[in-house]
Amino acid sequence: xxxxxxxxxxxxxxxxxxxxxxGLSLTIRGGEVHAIMGPNGSGKSTLAYTLMGHPRYVVExxxxxxxxxxxxxxxxxxxxxxxxxxxxxxxxxxxxxTVANFLRTAYxxxxxxxxKEISVMEFHKKLxxxxxxxxxxxxxxxxxxxxxxxxxEKKRHEILQMALLRPRIAIMDETDSGLDIDALKxxxxxxxxxxxxxxxxxVITHYQRILRYLQPDYVHxxxxxxxxxSGGRELAxxxxxxxxxxxxxxxxx
Amino acid sequence: xTTQTKLDQGLIAALSDRAGEPAWLRERRxxxxxxxxxxxxxxxxxxxxxxxxxxDFAPAKGGTAVNSWSELPASLREQVGDPAGxxxxxxxxxxxxxxxxxEGFPAGxxxxxxxxxxxxxxxxxxxxxxxxxxxxxxxxxxxxxxALHTGGLFVxxxxxxxxxxxxxxxxxxxxxxxxxxxxxxxxxxxxxxxxVLESAFSAPGVERSARFGLxxxxxxxxxxxxxxxxxxxxxxxxxxxxxxxxxxxxxxVDWVAAEFGGQLAVNExxxxxxxxxxxxxxxxxxxxGGQQHIDLELRMIHTGRETASDILVRGVVRDQxxxxxxxxxxxxxxxxxxxxxxxxxxLVLDPQARAYxxxxxxxxxxxxxxxxxxxxxxxxxPEQLFYLQSRGLTLQQAKRLIVDGFFYPVxxxxxxxxxxxxxxxxxxxxMAT
Lengths: 253, 433
Ligand SMILES: Nc1ncnc2c1ncn2[C@@H]1O[C@H](COP(=O)(O)OP(=O)(O)O)[C@@H](O)[C@H]1O
Ligand SMILES: [Mg+2]
Description:
The complex is a heterodimer. The model of chain A has no long low-confidence stretch (mean pLDDT about 95). By secondary structure, chain A is of the alpha/beta class. Chain A contains 8 helices and 12 strands. In chain A, the strands form 3 sheets. Chain A has a 6-stranded mixed β-sheet, sandwiched between helices. Chain A has one domain: Rossmann fold (3-Layer(aba) Sandwich). Chain A is about 40% helix and about 30% strand. Chain A starts with a strand and ends with a helix. Chain B is an alpha/beta fold. Chain B has one domain. Chain B is about 25% helix and about 40% strand. Chain B is built from 10 helices and 21 strands. In chain B, helix 1 packs antiparallel against helix 2 and helix 8 packs across helix 9. The longest helix of chain B is centred in the last third of the chain and has 17 residues. Chain B is globular, with a radius of gyration of 21 Å. At the A-B interface, helix 2, strand 7, helix 3 and strand 8 of A face helix 8 and helix 9 of B. The complex binds adenosine-5'-diphosphate (ADP) and magnesium ion. Adenosine-5'-diphosphate binds next to helix 1 of chain A.
């Protein structure tokens, strides 16, 4: 596997005719962790969904390239097979479908090309290992997808999927929200274990709490559909200290 | 010689002659034809049936009886699978062609085709065939089956005997343009237990043929009966079947109806809960695609005290398929301390598919333990599809997983493993086309 590069160039996105992302550029390479921070409604989830290919979001202009290939041309499942992963802010419930069945289907969809499907036994061994690492109880595998999961269970399940599917570009949309400090550590450790030159990470968050554990290389502040400032880790601390109002006056918004 | 393409009384009489049946049966057959002629067309709310759908058919030539499994048509054998260790009665084009029972099948249990039973066990058959507790034939489909039948199934389980393997009734068609009739009669004495699984299917490409079926089940006191059917005819076949059960006191009956095939298919299940403390549970699965029209009519009529009924149905419509879910529960006056529940959900996969849900619940008795119904018709949630696609599943795979999960609450409750697997395999097959 090679080191991935995701390039977002002058991206403009609208929902139901209303422009939400208003010209955004960002390049994420393997081995890097980027954080995007921003107030509610600034368009963070819109960016995440757009990168994954949700049909509701209309790209009006700009480009998204993965290793030079046009991502916007691809269906969501093709993007996933090419290595883009989104840890959902609000994972969807699917009744009657067990976690184990879902994960095995997804695993085979991503890794099982050309009839190289993993055996049920082998998969379960792998699943048990990954679940143990995230301190997820074994009975979890028999439950229905996200049905009746607590907030923390949903988020851990998203990271479990990331661990199994081994994406090249992972976008985490507020994976930290709603987690207590112990769960947050487990999730952050889970992500840190996956870090390598073959994985680029985009962490979307509201707070800098998770960033203490994930140690991003770059921090970007997003407001009203644009990245208004980029910097290193210290930018997150400054923002936490002084608040978004400080930033607004800084940039004259 | 011209080929007859309309059913009439002369033809019914000729069937009787050919069968060489006893006078009592000939009389009932002709009476059934008379009832068929007199009765109005069934008034299914969303399934309009025409007179032509009952009579514009040629009579079937029928199948040829064989002595060994390997002599049966390949397409039939393929669909039934490995026969080893199974109890089978096979009808081809309306006539019994093959029967086998596994070694060690309990003595005293009768599993045979109907004509043989009429000859060999008239004392068991005559009191029950086409009379149903004195109610007679009040249904046009049942009446036509009674007039037209050329074969069928007879199962009799003596007192206290538990039949260890499912009795399988295979209804197979490969003649085009014909109507076949068959009757299954299932009788259990007190404390007996049996499972009867019916599979209906046709050879590839059979067009304009029809099956008219009647299944009558008489569970004795404290007996337990499971009756399952998987209807998987090709899309050129019409399937009209009436199933009735009259449970004795404290008898427990599980119906499992799985309707996948047919161009037009109506499965009417009629339970008369008369025996005190008797219980009937109905599980239903349907899947209408292409140009199919499927109607599942489930009636639970409570007349006895402390009776319980439960209906749980899930169905899918896609393409231009149409499906009707019509449960009807009536708790009559004096059926004290009874319960009657219905739950039904239909998933609509495509914009041109249509689903109708017509639940009816009538409670005439004040002192009931509980009664209720819930029915929904919904579409696949696009957020579910997106979530699954974002994990690499194609749109088709995502739909398949959602549909499997949707059926799960019913398939999970199917009490016989072999039947559960068959139903799930049919869902797979429908989703794969
Ligand atoms: N489905 C939708 N329909 C219409 N507007 C939406 C929809 N989803 C989000 N928006 C709007 O888009 C803007 C950005 O939302 P979002 O991307 O969720 O922000 P964030 O994740 O940063 O809180 C908000 O003004 C929000 O109201
Ligand atoms: Mg958001």
